[in-house]
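Example 482, ligand uracil.
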Amino acid sequence: MSVATDVRVRVEPSFAHWRELARAALASGMRPESIDFEDVTSPAPSDLFATAGDGTDALLATPRAETGQAYVPKAFLQKAMLAGCHRDPQRWNLLYRLLWRLQTSRDLLMVEVDNDVNELVRMDQQVRRDEHKMHAFVRFRRVEEEGGQEHFIAWYQPAHRILELAAPFFAERFAIMRWSILTPDGSVAWDPATKQLQYGPAVPRESAPDGDELEVLWKSYYGSIFNPARLNPGTMRGHMPVKYWGNLPEVELLPQLLQTAAARVQGMVETQKSKPSAAPFVPVLHTIGAIGEALPACKGCELYEHATQVVPGRGPQTANLLLVGEQPGDQEDRQGAPFVGPAGGVLRRALAEAGIHDEDVYMTNAVKHFKFVQRGKLRLHQNPRMSEITACKPWLLAELDALKPKLVLCLGASAAKSLLGGTFALMRDRGKVLSTPYADRVMATVHPSAVLRALDDGTRDTLYKHLRDDLLAAHKLAMQTV
Ligand code: URA
């Protein structure tokens, strides 16, 4: 038989709000049987409480002086904060019951056979598990906003209300990226400039539009990192329970950003169409063999027009360390292989001094064609523009997908811009291990040609040491994680 409840209080739902209400209820001596905590978002109040008044405001109006000192052990607080994220509508009542009982049974949490304690432990475990799943299964999609800024967006539906719990993990992991995670409970955005997480409104899945324009976006932006293995249900099941399939990039997941601004989507599609990109030339199957066969046909930007040939990556496919240079130089353009000219000489010396063998490294470039200006008989190297780096990026992403190196070391600013974004500052951030949606561990160091171009011996020595030491550190890390 159910017990009549005197007061019904509405929780936001957030742990902080429940705690405030619970403290006041405790101070007023309200027994757990006489109060019912209910989520504000829950549908109609149950019949059981139909006659109980909404006591939220009255409870909160309890004078501070009356709210005395409750006994709230740390162990309870930690578990209660997690249980508060659980979707069970009875969680607040359970927590209040435990809090109430703790005032007179201080060792209550040690009593494992107690039903309430048991329930608390169960919720705590389920929420933790859900948090781990979210960390593992959120899939970001890259969109390019007006002005060329990259934004990584994911839509995810956690089993419990864990957005705020899980978000700091992504802030740490993808600290240098601008990203948003949209969920039906709320959304969160990270701004790498301010290093702040900003929480926003919920994004129900069903309100996301379908549409050809998004299909176009998908093809343009993500086609290059598409992994056909994910289309194989057997493989997918092996990696992830079916209920998480909805978060894979192949399934229609649509960011609120796009949903709320159809016109903007159209604009993005148009801009993308007119932008140079290697994406249409990159094979769907990302193997080094398939990439090597497809590369010579690339006309993704204008650089192919003047170069002798495209220069593919080179090295053992089992290499743990991937070195990404800027673009082929004069010699590389003539010989069709990376780092065979003067900069390659510096690089080889640094690799040897760092004790790194050929079998440990694969070398490639952010841009696959030589960019130069002709001055008489000389062909003078020119830095690639950001648009050319971006156009060539699908090749680099395909190589990353094929090789799956343990660590990527970008040599110089152009390679760093390609993988770490246009705002990456080489001399400030060189040597740091960063995480990106493309590769878990990415570092950047000075380019060997910067050593060659140094104006004095002191600068040359310093730059060379940076290069060698960063190679050494990168190699050590790559080998550690094997
Ligand atoms: N510089 C690079 O960045 N890459 C090469 O392959 C050669 C020189």
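Summary: Residues 325-329, 332, 338-339, 341, 343-344, 365, 449 surround uracil (CB under 6 Å).
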